[in-house]
């Protein structure tokens, strides 16, 4: 191949590659301006549309999966009822909890932590974990999934009642489709 032909071919391939990367990136951008930050007020949702996936629980999105192109999902959970989710494990996401108000028991692997306002607990991916609100009154916890995986999508579907009439096997499949699975019952604790 002549040098001039090689250079033209190289430039053409480079231009095509650059064009393709721009289009791929443009397809993953969310509708929010990447050049700006944002503020979400206390007790408010990022989109002014809180969800209630579980009875006695309200989720306020603080950082949406779309805000970070899947990098993380952060929400505040305001809980009235005692208890919490099943023991489960995420395939590809780490999860953490920062207690704002009230008291929680948070189990990660074989360790159970008593977490109160100001306490932080980390749960690495593939390690079984769960938590439970304990005590009377309202409790609040910031929960994050990093990377986000499909947890925000899962909570929205649950809030919309998608799983309401599902069998346990169908619920298990739905969990797996969203990147996690049930590995045991909810955390039990003794009331004082």
From TrEMBL:
Chain intervals for the UniProt region annotation (Disordered): 168-192
Record field: compositional bias (Basic and acidic residues): 168-181
The Cupin type-2 domain, residue ranges: 85-143
Name of the featured protein: Cupin domain-containing protein
Organism ancestry: Bacteria, Pseudomonadati, Bacteroidota, Chitinophagia, Chitinophagales
Organism of this sequence: Chitinophaga hostae
Pfam families xrefs: Cupin_2
Stored InterPro entries: Cupin_2, QDO-like, RmlC-like_jellyroll, RmlC_Cupin_sf
Signal peptide: 1-26
Transmembrane segments: none
Keyword vocabulary terms for this entry: Signal
């Amino acid at each position: 191949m002549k040098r001039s032909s090689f250079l033209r071919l190289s430039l053409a391939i480079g231009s095509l590659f650059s064009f393709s990367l721009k289009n791929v990136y443009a397809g993953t951008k969310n509708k929010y301006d990447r050049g700006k930050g944002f503020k979400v007020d206390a007790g408010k949702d990022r989109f002014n549309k809180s969800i209630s996936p579980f009875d006695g629980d309200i989720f306020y999105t603080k950082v949406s999966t779309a805000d970070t192109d899947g990098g993380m999902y952060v929400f505040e959970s305001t809980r009235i009822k005692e208890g919490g989710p099943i023991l489960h494990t995420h395939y590809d996401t780490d999860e953490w909890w920062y207690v704002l108000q009230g008291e929680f028991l948070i189990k990660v692997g074989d360790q159970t932590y008593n977490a109160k306002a100001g306490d932080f607990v980390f749960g690495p991916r593939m390690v079984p974990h769960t938590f439970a609100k304990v005590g009377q009154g309202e409790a609040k916890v910031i929960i994050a999934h990093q990377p986000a995986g499909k947890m925000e999508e899962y909570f929205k579907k649950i809030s919309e009642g998608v799983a309401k009439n599902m069998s346990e096997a169908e619920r298990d499949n739905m969990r797996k489709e969203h990147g996690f699975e049930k590995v045991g019952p909810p955390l039990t604790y003794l009331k004082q």
